[in-house]
Structure formats: C-alpha cells, structure tokens
Specification:
single chain; alpha+beta; Jelly Rolls; Four Helix Bundle (Hemerythrin (Met), subunit A); eight-stranded mixed beta sheet; about 25% helix
C-alpha cells in the first residue's frame, strides 16, 4: 500500500520466504519525492531449510535499496530462539532492520531482499518518510511492528488474550492506513498500542514461567535411583500454577498483578528444586584443578601466548583484557582445552572483587573450545555470579534457552575469598540417561543442586571454562582439596 509517497507491505505470516543462499526479490517503487530522506524498514527471521531444526547459524538476509546509483543496505538474522514449552521445538525471533536513504534527483528506487546464508523470512517491508516529516505516522508504524513481533513470538498465549491483542493491533493498522488521520489521532493510537504492548510483554513473561513450571511438574520423579522428589513437593507447585494460570487468562489483570504472578511462579520453582533428594556431590571424582590451572598451554583463546602468572598466594590470575601479565584471552572467554570433562566436580577458591555491571561466569560442558560462549556452534551451561545473585543459564547452538534460566537471589558470592564447588553430571533412571545434575555450592552452602531433564540438556562431557564480561576484569583462582 502507498501513503504520502511511502510504501508498506505486510502479511500476517511472512511476506516472502527466501529459500536459500542467493535467493532474492526486488521491486521498483515510483512516485517518491526527489532530494528527500526516506527510511526503509523490514523484519527478518532466520528460517532453516525445510526439514532442518531451527538454528541461529541459519538464515541471514540482506535488505537494501538502490537509488540514484547508490545502494544502502544492512544484513540481519535472528538474535535468539523462542523455545516452545513442553517440546524441543524452537522458533527464531523477528529482527527489525532500519535503513535511512536519500533519493537524490530520482523519484524511483529499487528495493531488494536477498539471502546471504541459508534461508530467511522477510516481512513488513516499508519505505516511509523520516520522522521530521511524518513523525506521528512513523512512530505508530514502529509500535505496530514491535507489537506484531511480540504476538508472533507467543504461540502459547491463551486464545482470548491473543485475539484481544490482535484486535488492538488491527485497529492500529486501520489508523495508520487512514490518510486523513490527524497527528493527534495517530499519537493517541500509538499510546494505546504501547500500553497494550507493555501489558502483553508482562503476560509473556508470566506465560514463560508457567510453561516452564508445568514442564517441571510433569517430569517429577518420586522413586528415582539417582534422585527424586518427595511426593509432598508436587501439590504446592501445582497450586501456584493453577492460581496464576487464572491471572494469565484474566484480560483485566493489571501490570502489577502479572509481574507478581510471574515472580510467584519462579519462587515456587526454586522452592521445588530445594526439595530434590540427591546423593552427596562427593560421589563425583574431583577434577585435578591444580594441574588444570597451571597448564599454560591448556587454556584456549589466549591473549598473550605463554604469559601465565601465579601470585605469591598460589592464585592463578585470569583476565579478559589485553596488556601485561596474567592468563589472558580474547573475547572474554577461555576454556581448558586439553581434555573434555564429564561427571567430575571442580573445587576452587576464588578471589573476586565485583564491580557494577560485571558479568563473570563459570562455564560447564562447553562443546567447542575455540569458540565464544555465544558462538553459533556452542552449547553449554553458564553459572553467572553477581553481587545481587546467581543465574543458571543454558545456551544451545549460540542461543539461550530462556525457559530454563533460573535466578537465585541473594549475595551468595561475597566480595573477596570464597570456596566453591560446582559441576555437571549425567544421571540415570533404570539404566537410561535421565538428565544432567547441575550443582553449585559456595562456602559449603548450597546455591543450587538440581537436574535438567529438558530435551536440550547438554549430555556427556565438555570443556570447563570462564567468561568475564565486560572486559578488564580479573578473577583469581586456586585449587583446594575438595571437601
């Protein structure tokens, strides 16, 4: 459609599917204003080839426009995957691309979309006037695209809620498409839509918490060999799920109610994890941390080859910056690469002085030693520790499984010296793989000790490592005799 010398193409699924590398489309648009600034926008979604699983090392698209002999373009691919509850299925999220361009002396421009790698979906292709000339309409259009993306990435939302949000979006499209709409009317509709989007986003967080809790409840084992839950642990979780499912389905629930409901579900999940009955972590052999820490050649992604520093107190220094001294590496992560480690535990003393914004983490079962923790082929668990608490994360092929993320509040890691034991170990039920036990103890106190039974559990062995973000951090480690 065309409005005020602007074009817009949209579709409720996707506007076009580009089936493989080198595939593309193009169209010449006329009746543009000469010597005028415009903005080309589009949404891109990575789309693996038919018959393959969703992956972030899949589709990458290039969107662009050629006018007056000049080509303006940008590349994009999905930044993360949305995990569908109770299945292993994942779907890439949509990414917004925005490209300013100038028409020069021309009144026509050729818009194109093409794949750079594998396959991609492209939708909501738009050429609009810049904010200076059409700010109210452009702002409403941007809000609509954000709302469309939120709705498309929420397949498990109750139908009545999704339909209500769909109606708000469609009403916004109607206003956007009305050439007689006044700036005040466009602005009023944008504010209405953004209010609805804020509530829908909170509802999405509650939905994710409920789906994860339901999966956990459905997988509870009460008579396992390696681990089990006491039967008394299930009813409290199920009661919290049922109560907050009603909040999710309540179209009149206020933002505060939705936030409180999500927090209640997450708290119930953590409470359940604390009831699990597990053998002591001493059943797992202790990794030889002394040998690992002082193996200068064993750490991947080094910044300065052969430069490893042990201080007078026996600590090995790790840092993510370049410069002098210490065991360094690039891109903020390093792995002990001489051997893959399976069902062993790591016993360490750690000296760390947290700073605002720090993001240090231990890495368990990394699958690729020479790749970043966020690399396309990388899968692992991260134990992220900060002054405000500890996060357990799982990354699969470069994308975080956000439905698995667990946050353990409180100052488990105090500034200065801490004794830690952590690890990942496969567990079995009736002689078959049943999940991955993940544990983290600080100064003898359990922070978490639980079992990942999801389909994406990182089974088998992998590399132990460290991640320090942002750069210019230092973490000091030394081996201790395990308890």
């Amino acid at each position: 459609m065309k409005r005020d010398s602007a074009y817009y193409v949209r579709n409720d699924g996707f506007g076009v599917h580009l089936a493989g590398a080198g595939t593309g489309i193009k169209q010449t648009l006329g009746d543009l204003k000469p010597d005028t600034d415009y903005i080309l926008t589009a949404r891109v979604q990575s789309a693996p080839e038919a018959g393959t699983a969703a992956s972030l090392n899949g589709g990458r698209a290039r969107i662009g426009v050629t006018v007056s002999g000049v080509t303006y373009s940008a590349e994009a691919e999905s930044a993360k995957l949305v995990v569908r509850a109770n299945t292993a299925a994942q779907m890439p999220e949509w990414v917004l691309v925005s490209i300013p361009f100038h028409t020069g002396g021309e009144t026509a421009a050729e818009v194109f979309a093409e794949t750079v790698r594998q396959a991609a979906n492209v939708d909501h292709i738009a050429v609009t006037l810049p904010l200076a000339e059409g700010d109210a309409r452009a702002l409403l259009g941007g809000a609509i695209m954000e709302a469309e993306g939120a709705l498309q990435s929420s397949p498990g939302m109750p139908q009545a809620i999704a339909d209500g949000f769909r109606q708000t979006i469609d009403a916004s499209w109607t206003v956007w498409d009305d050439s007689a709409a006044t700036p005040a009317g466009l602005e009023a509709q944008r504010e209405l839509l953004e209010d609805a989007l804020e509530v829908f986003t909170l509802r999405k967080a509650l939905l994710a918490a409920l789906e994860s809790a339901k999966q956990l409840s459905g997988e509870m084992i009460f008579d396992g060999e390696d681990y089990h839950y006491p039967p008394s642990a299930k009813p409290p979780l199920d009661a919290v799920i049922a109560a907050n499912q009603l909040v999710l389905e309540d179209s009149l629930a206020a933002p505060g109610e939705l936030s409180a409901a999500a927090e209640a579900v997450e708290a119930a999940k953590l409470a359940l994890y604390n009831t699990i009955v597990l053998p002591p972590i001493s059943i797992y052999a202790a990794a030889d941390m002394q040998q690992m820490l002082f193996s200068g050649e064993g750490w991947s992604r080094k910044g300065l080859a052969g430069d490893y520093l042990m201080d007078g107190e026996g600590f090995m220094h790790f840092r993510s910056s370049t410069g002098e001294g210490n065991n360094q590496w690039s891109k903020g992560a390093t792995f002990y690469s001489l051997s893959r480690i399976g069902n062993e535990r790591f016993a360490l003393e750690m000296d760390y002085q947290p700073a605002q914004g720090d993001w240090p983490a231990f890495v368990l079962r990394a699958q690729v030693a020479q790749e970043s923790v966020f690399g396309d082929n990388q899968s692992e668990y991260l134990v992220v520790f900060r002054a405000q608490g500890v996060e357990l994360q799982k990354w699969i092929n470069g994308a975080e499984d956000v439905s698995f993320r667990l946050v353990f509040p409180g100052g488990a890691i105090a500034p200065g010296l801490n004794s830690v034991q952590l690890g990942a170990a496969d567990v079995e039920q009736n002689g078959e793989f049943a999940g991955v036990r993940l544990f983290f103890y600080v100064n003898g106190t359990r922070v978490f000790d639980l079992v990942d039974r999801t389909a994406s559990a990182v089974q088998g062995d992998g590399y132990f490592g460290l991640a320090l973000y942002p750069p210019a951090q230092t973490l000091k480690l030394r081996a201790v005799a395990p308890e």
